[in-house]
């Protein structure tokens, strides 16, 4: 299993869950390479909405029923993450990345995580994190 710390965003989690997603197999293959994938709790509402929209309520139920047995490790936001997210919202206001994506950046910075599992390259490519020059985006 891969040892490098990694954090997931909504698009990755949804692609793993929805078998008809064009990125499904590639994301499942990546998912299976990690013993632990950090998942900020700030993404859960967005994840639930997207899984329900694309896969139905049963898929969402399945996700939450099996979350504790998965490689996902929930990470709560702390006050410093909220402040950093607000700062990033201000800094990148013209590019308009959303709260969830920027909270993922804040958590990644705090936890010194260099990789993000995401299909949303556009938003994460423009962010310049504090702890590294740029994120490694997978797949």
SS-based structural class?
A: alpha/beta
CATH class category: Alpha Beta
> How many strand segments?
5
Q: State the CATH topology.
A: Rossmann fold
Shape, principal axes of CA atoms: globular
Characterize the main sheet.
3 strands, parallel
Helix content: 40-55%
First CA to last CA: what distance?
16 Å
Total domain units: 1
Tally of alpha and pi helices: 7
Question: H/E order of the elements?
Answer: EHHEHHEHHEHE
Identify low-pLDDT runs: none
* CATH architecture descriptor name: 3-Layer(aba) Sandwich
Strand order of the largest sheet: 1-4-5
Beta-strand content estimate: 5-15%
Mean pLDDT: 96
Name of the CATH superfamily = 5'-nuclease
CA gyration radius, whole angstroms = 14 Å
Could you characterize what this model shows?
The protein contains seven helices and five strands. With 139 residues, the chain is α/β, with parallel strands linked by helices. The chain has one domain: 5'-nuclease (Rossmann fold). The chain has a three-stranded parallel β-sheet with strand order 1-4-5. Helix 1 crosses helix 2 and helix 1 (10-17) runs parallel beside helix 3 (44-55). It is globular and about 40 Å long. The model has no long low-confidence stretch (mean pLDDT 96).
Give the arrangement of secondary structure elements.
Layout (H helix, E strand, L loop, with lengths): L5 E3 L1 H8 L6 H8 L5 E4 L3 H12 L1 H10 L5 E4 L3 H13 L7 H13 L3 E3 L3 H6 L9 E3 L1
Parallel strand pairs: 1-4, 2-3, 4-5
Summarize the structure.
The protein is 50% helix and 12% strand.
